[in-house]
Structures are given as C-alpha cells and as structure tokens.
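Example record for the data management plan.
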Amino acid sequence: MEYRIVLRRMEFRAFHGCYELERKVGNRFTVDVEITTELGDVAAEDSVEKAVNYLTVYEVVRQQMTVTQRTIERVAMNIIDAIHAGFPQVRHVKCTVSKLAPPLGGKLERVSVVLER
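Corresponding structural encoding:
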C-alpha cells in the first residue's frame, strides 16, 4: 500500500534567478512537496523509524534552497534528487517551486514550476 506525505507553502528567502540583481538581493519563494511512498510496516507498527520523516524532508528542502541556481526548474530538480537520495522507499515526488512577486515589469503574484519524478 502507498501513502502520500504533503508539505505545503514552505517559505524561504533565497537568491535564485537569471538576473544578477536577483542573485544579489534575493527574493521570496514557496515550495510544495508531495511524496508517494510505500506504507510498509509504518502504520501497523506505529514506526516513526520506518516512516519518511517530514522534519527531515523539510530540512532537505531548506538546504537545497540555499544553493543558488539560475532557474527554479533546477531548484525543483535538486530537491527531488535529494529526497530520492535520502529516502530509498520514496516512489514519486512532485515538487512545486514558486517565486513570489517576480521582477517581470508588471504585477504578478508568483511564477511556479512543477516537476515530478
């Protein structure tokens, strides 16, 4: 049996962007992660040790957000790769990275990319 773990609207200040100014002054970003994994004995044994620890997932995302990238596509890919590397029982990860109020010359709430693997 599979189950999902969902972390929504994790917010970070980071320095991702294609413009040099973005990489200097930074911007606000949100990240949503949805993980599909095997339930195994987690529920039957009430085993935290066998579960995908969402605190650890948050720390993985936080660490990846500190690695400056030119595109949010690369940021999302790094997050997905790091989650798969840290949790071999994970089958699928959907990651949405959003840049809030991007500098596009007009009023825009956010721009987002969604990657899945």
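Summary line stored alongside the record: Residues 3 and 26 are 35 Å apart (CA to CA).
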